[in-house]
Amino acid sequence: MVPMQERRQGRAKIMGATAQALELHPGVSPVVLAGRDAWRRFCAAHELGLDQLLCVGRALLEGRRAAMLKAGANTPTGAPYIAAFRSWCAEAGFSEVPTNWRMDLTWCAEHETEVRAAWGAHLAARAKGRPSLNPRTLRQSVTKIRKEGPPRKRKAPTVAAMPIETLCVSLGRRLAALDPHCALGEIARLASTLETATISARKNSR
């Protein structure tokens, strides 16, 4: 557990950084500042976690509202809105965000709860590695889950499906952890099983 004093100090640092950023960028909301910072870090390191991705989406969502207001539009469509949103992106530091990403990022921000659930479900369903993390993939995942339900977790491979090398390593560890007498008994049973399997294999090969 983090001591209460350390947590308070952490909050104070965050609040101080936010206040300083607002002083440097008067009139810019904390949401836009957070999104801009997340996008700049992505451009520098080409790594974007889910939280950072959603930060960018929230900022663009705020920009979309501002563009709709400026264009006098009720929906984010039409030439006046597109021009206003493009102008906002340039002024706010999001001009390098690809157009298709802008649409998908705002969508993800609007459906954040479902996006987080879909991402968690895909992480749980994968045995190795991580699924692709980009707004289009997340949007498609949410749509798929709405239709088909969450992905099933992958089952662990059965003993019969394991490579022989893996089985040998596993058996070696098991035997090493046993009492010597117990280990000898296990080895005797294993030898008997292997002998039976050898006889069966020879018969089947004839």
Q: Mind explaining what this structure looks like?
A:
The protein has 9 helices and no strands. By secondary structure, it is an all-alpha fold. The protein folds into 2 domains: 128 residues, no CATH class; 39 residues, no CATH class. Helix 3 packs across helix 5 and helix 6 crosses helix 7. About 8% of the residues have low confidence.
Low-confidence stretches: 10-25
Strand content: under 5%
Q: Which outline best applies?
A: elongated
Number of DSSP strand runs: 0
Please tally the helical runs, counting DSSP H or I stretches of 4 or more residues: 9
Summarize the structure.
With 206 residues, the chain is mainly α. It has nine helices and no strands.
Task: Detail the topology: elements first, then pairings.
Elements: H1 4-24, H2 30-45, H3 50-71, H4 79-92, H5 99-110, H6 112-125, H7 135-148, H8 164-177, H9 180-205
Helix pairs in contact: 2-3, 3-4, 3-5, 5-7, 6-7
Features:
single chain, 206 residues, mainly alpha, 2 domains, 0% strand
